[in-house]
Structures are given as structure tokens and as C-alpha cells.
Amino acid sequence: MSKKEITLLCPVYNEEENVEIFYQAFSTLISTIENYSFKFLFLDNCSTDSTFAKLRQLADLDSRITVLRYSKNFGVMKSIYTGLLHVKTDCVAVFDCDLQDPPSLLLEFIAKWEDGGYIVYGKRMKRDEPQYLTILRNVFKFIQKKLDNSIEIESGAWLIDQRVLTELRNHNSFEPYLPGLLSRIGFTTIGVPYERKKRKYGESKFNTRRYFSYATDGIVSGTILPLRLSIWIGVTTSILSVILMVYFILAKFYWGFPFASGIAANITMDLFFWGIHFIVMGILGEYIGRIYLKDDSSKPAIIDRIYTKDHNEIL
Predict the structure, then answer these.
(1) Bridge partners, residue 68, by sequence
(2) How far apart are CA 215 and CA 286, in angstroms?
(3) What are residue 192's DSSP bridge partners?
(4) How do residues 199-229 score in pLDDT, each as one tens digit?
């Protein structure tokens, strides 16, 4: 019987210090796995350092390596999504280049895949990160849960069956929050608990602003509940305004409370209603912005070059 084939997919951007370490770590691991054959697929998001040059050197030494270089930096999620569309093997294992997700996870992923898991993901039980990021992450998960939009799959290390990849190609539309898209496709999903390590070399490309943007994508991904929430906010605000109006009328004409020509009440109510107005408009803006950008943002990343040991193709 022929061996099942697995693609090791790795998105990179300015990872000149890590690509060789990543390749060596996984090459050592897969050399101990006898029942499967492996390929490497590196996705270079138009790195500005020597990352692409080092990947070409590795590809010249190992025919299992393919490098896709994009025409610009499309972001990590679109990079991964485009790479997934090009995978033709039995499954694909996605790992970041910094090795914060340990290569040994691959063995557990394969075992869960063979047990029937179509999507196997790393469930991070502990992270070596600043405390404020942990707090913000917990707030994000709390909001997702309250909006009934809790997504089980986490960003990071995944193993995805070819059946799911086929559905991704049929769906043919990228969404910025890739875990949400994978979750809505369905199929059996299994989480593997592990402790995420600290990055040893290079710097993370995700800053607080990008984390916030990614969290926003996660909250509004695949649900219109925030839009409905804005309706309820409007209804609640209207009810409160009527109650306040009745209170001020009674206070002024029945209870005889002194008011300085209604200035305090007007300022308080104006500030309150303007605050609600901006919240609702912000929610609407998120969805309207996605409609406006849909034609461009839903397309895969543009591939500039495909590099392997045998050829260097310019697309």
C-alpha cells in the first residue's frame, strides 16, 4: 500500500533566523515516522530580508520543498488560506515558523486524524506572553461566548483533512478570521492541549493593533448578532429616554425639584444618546466595511513565484 502524504505548511514573513531551524526540526521529526511521506510548503509573504533566499537554498537541497512567494504582504491568514487551496495531499499540517508550537504536536495530530478527526488543532493551555495580552484574550473569548459566536478552533497549529480542503476550494471565498470559516465548514474537530513556548529568535509580527483587528474579525465572523444587538440597544435606549422624560416632568412640576433651566438634564441625556449612537454606528460600520471590501478581500493572495528544486516559475 502507498503511504499517505502530508504537507507541512509554514507561513513566513522576515523569518531569516528561523526558517532553517524550522526545517531541521521537522526534518528530524519526520525521519522517525515511517508510515507517511511528507512535503514542505513555505509561504513567503514578500519578506524584505533574506528569508526567500534561504528558502531557495533549502529547496535546492530538498526536492520535497515548494516555496510560494506572494506579490506583497497579504497578512498571515490570507497567506495560509491561499496555501491551503494549493495542497493536494491527504492532509496538511500548519505550523508557524517560530516553533512556539512544538513539532512533537504533529505526532498527536496524526493520531487524532487517524481516529477520525477532520480538523485537529492545538489547544493552548498556557502561553508565555505579557499579562495584558492574556487579559485581552480572555475578554475576547468572553465576548464571543456572550454573543453565542464561540469558535472552538484556535489560531496556530492545525492538521486539516483533504475533505475539508476540498470544501474550502468549493467555498472559494477568503474570510479574515480563518478559524471561523473552518468551524462553519463542519466535520469532526479535535483539540490537543499543549503549552505554547516562547519565541527564541526574531520578533513577532503581531502587535496590539493587529491583535485587536483580528479579535474584531473573530467577533463579527459568520454572525449578524451584533447587528441585532444594536437594535436592542436602540430599543432599550428609547425606553430609558421615555422613563427619563417622565421623571424630569414629575420632578419639575409635581415634586418641585429645582432645575437650572434644564441644562444638566440636557447635557446628560445628549452625552448618553451620542454614546449609544456611536456604538451602534461602529457596529454597522464593521459590517458595511466588509461589504465594501468584499470583492478584493475575499480573493486569495496573488502568487508571484513558485520555487522548487526543479524550476523557478514566475506567475
Answers:
(1) 43, 306
(2) 12
(3) 122
(4) 665 565 555 555 555 555 555 555 556 655 6
The pLDDT score that the predictor gives to residue 39 is: 92
Which residues 6+ apart lie within 8 Å of 268 measured at CB?
Answer: none
What would the pLDDT profile of 63-73 be if each residue is shown by its tens digit? Answer: 899 999 988 88
CB within 8 A of 210, min separation 6: which ones?
Answer: none
For 69, the grid coordinates are 512567494
What is the pLDDT at residue 220?
Answer: 57
C-beta atoms surrounding 276 within 10 Å: 18
pLDDT of 29 reads 92
Q: What is the DSSP letter of 147?
A: T
SS3 content of the chain, % helix, strand, coil (to 5): 50, 15, 35
Residue 152 DSSP one-character state: -
Sign, CA dihedral 42-51-60-308, equals positive
**Sign of the torsion formed by the C-alpha atoms of 32, 33, 39 and 44:** negative
Q: What integer is the mean pLDDT of 262-288?
A: 63
- Helices vs. strands in the chain: H and E counts, helices first: 10, 9
Answer yes or no: are the C-beta atoms of 9 and 43 closer than 8 Å. yes
Spell out where the chain has E strands: 4-12, 36-44, 65-70, 91-94, 119-126, 158-161, 189-195, 303-307, 312-314
Distance of CA 168 to the CA centre of its chain: 15
> Please, are residues 102 and 174 in contact by the beta-carbon 8 Å criterion?
no
Question: What DSSP letter does each residue of 262-307 carry, written as one string?
Answer: THHHHHHHHHHHHHHHHHHHHHHHHHHHHHHHHHHHTSPPPEEEEE
